[in-house]
Amino acid sequence: MAAVFPCCVACCGDGGAGHAPLKEMPTVQLDTQHMGTDVVIVKSGRRICGTGACLANAPLHQNKSYFEFKIQSTGVWGIGVATQKVNLNQVPLGRDSHSLVLRHDGSIYHNNEEKNRLPANSLPQEGDIVGVTYDHVELNLYLNGKNMHCPASGIRGTVFPIVYVDDSAIIDSQFSDFYHTPPEGFEKIMFEQQIF
Question: So where does this one cross the membrane (predicted)?
């Protein structure tokens, strides 16, 4: 046994010749390369404040994705999915074909059309967790783990999670280690190389 250990250290333990270091998988977070000019991203790419929108750094390639947002401070805000063609300086989103979002007033907008609305008395408040599922057809919303039964669809192309804020709103994104268990069949966002 003692002879085996030096061999392991010599072959792969010291990073010497022939050693290929493992590539660390990237973390899904808000993307400072794709945010509005008056947006501030803090807390290791998890918190958004200021005015404008920010995309996540990973597209939704897998069949069924789940992610969450926590309302830290109310104001004007929206969450959902968008393509990279969305105007990140224009709030509220949902005015064109490049975004599908839940707005702070409970309406879900895409292409300047209200696609659905949260049930009465179900507006997210400070401290609430809004879960989002997306399966390349339909976006569904969960409030503190409860299905709101208000699906919306219509967006086409490669989409990313998106969040926007204005009027003192502060939102935290959660792309793993969720507050609530994802619905059956849905999972955290994976980078394309993690899927295969």
Answer: none
Q: Is the pTM of this model over 0.70?
A: yes
Q: Which residue has the tokens 């250990």?
A: 5
The residues pairing with 71 across neighbouring beta strands, listed in sequence order, are 171
Determine the Cα–Cα distance for residues 83 and 159; give it in Å rounded to an integer.
5
In the numeric block, the tokens 């949902």 are attached to 94
What is the C-alpha to C-alpha distance for residues 78 and 94, in angstroms, rounded to an integer?
Answer: 9
Which tokens belong to 18? 């022939």
Cα 40 from Cα 38, distance rounded (Å): 7
3-state SS class at 74: coil
Which residues of the chain fall short of a pLDDT of 50?
1, 4-15, 195-196
For residue 122, give every residue at least 6 positions away whose Cβ sits within 8 Å of its Cβ, in sequence order, or none. 106, 143, 148
DSSP bridge pairs for 67: 132
Burial of 151 by CB count in 10 Å (0-12 exposed, 13-18 middle, 19+ buried)? Answer: middle
pLDDT at 23: 62
